[in-house]
Write a structure and sequence with these properties.
Radius of gyration: 27 Å
Oligomer: single chain
Largest sheet: none
Order of helices and strands: HHH
Mean pLDDT: 91
Distance between the termini: 87 Å
Number of strands: 0
Structural class: mainly alpha
């Protein structure tokens, strides 16, 4: 009987470990996707066109005056 209890406990432990691994893997995938979206300059250009025009104008003015 104690051996069956140990086997059931081992199975529960393995299941918990597998679930934790799956959750960690999903979290890492979410983090990677978030980082890729944050660092994608094309998406930033699409979502902030006015700011980039302003930066371009300011940079052009600065270089022209210099």
């Amino acid at each position: 009987m104690p051996e069956q209890h140990l086997d059931a406990h081992s199975a529960n432990l393995r299941e918990s470990i597998d679930l934790a691994r799956q959750q960690i893997s999903e979290s890492l995938d979410d983090i990677q996707l978030n980082i890729e979206e944050t660092l994608d300059w094309r998406a930033w250009v699409d979502s902030h066109p006015r700011e980039l025009v302003g930066i371009g104008l300011a940079l052009g003015f600065y270089l022209g005056v210099r």
